[in-house]
Every structure is written in structure tokens, then in C-alpha cells.
Amino acid sequence: MPVILSQSQIRSFYKDTIYNNLPNEEKLDAPIDSRIKDLINQIVELGGKNAIDLGYGYGNHSMILARKGMNVTAIDYIPAEIFQQKVDTFGLTNKIRIISKDIGQLKVNEAFNFVIGKDVLHFLSKQKVKSLMTSLVEMSPSYSIHYYEIFADI
Fold it and tell me: Helices (DSSP H) in the chain: which residue ranges?
């Protein structure tokens, strides 16, 4: 039976999970999959400079993208304090721009060579997913990679 949660309950759950490093079904702190690493290497080899991490969570994808030299826009609904500390500690402040915002409210107004949305789109309605993905594709340069992983039927 589905459990219905308000946005504030979802935000609270993720904030608590990340702040306290709690176990979770999504395995937010899992190592980055080799397929994703390969895609990141491909876009860097093609000269990709800009990436967006939809639902950054612990920030693992944003960190590897920035370490590979990409400028990253990291967006998530959760407060940014923990991830900002991580970014500052590793000296990536000039490579990662953190936005605390519901991705359903994102207005795409810049081009990204690499788009990653892992385990986040299920929080949006089908129409919002379609609109967001369409905007990201329309703004993408010809050499771009979009990687989405979804564990729900949207």
C-alpha cells in the first residue's frame, strides 16, 4: 500500500538521512557506478564543460564531475549545508554551484553537456518530468550526455 507523504515530510526525511548518515533504500552514499564514471570520462574527452546534478544528495556525482574539470550546477530540495562543507573542504567552491530548490521548479536557461538525474525524478509528476527533460534536451549542445535512473513508474 502506497504511503503518501507531504513535501515537508520528504524534505525532513532526506535532511535527517543525510545529516545523520542513516541507511536508506536508495543507497545515497554508495560508490559511483562504473557506467556513470565511463560516461563522465566520455563527456570530458569530448570537451564538455558544464554539468547539472539533479537531486545531488550526498554530492558524489557533483564532486567527481568537478574533479574532472566540469562546472557543476547541483540542485536538490534538501538544505545545502553539509554538501557545501564538503565542497569547501575539497576546494571545489569555484566548480560547484549549489542550489537548494525543488527540481520541479527548475527553469532551464543554460546549456549542460552532462545531465544526471539519479533516483530523483519519481518525486515529480509525469508532466513535470516531461517538461524538465524536454527543456534540458532543447538547451543541450550537440555533444551532451543525459543519464537518468528512475526506480518508480513515472
Answer: 7-19, 34-45, 60-67, 81-89, 126-139
- Cβ atoms of 40 and 64 closer than 8 Å: yes
Q: Residues in the chain with pLDDT < 50?
A: 154
- The Cα 135–Cα 70 span in angstroms is 21
Task: Measure the CA–CA gap between 90 and 137, rounded to whole angstroms.
Answer: 31
Q: 110 vs 107, 115, 126, 136, CA distance in Å?
A: 9, 12, 23, 9
8 A C-beta contact, residue 80 and residue 55: no
Q: How many residues does the chain have?
A: 154
Q: For the whole model, what pTM was predicted?
A: 0.83
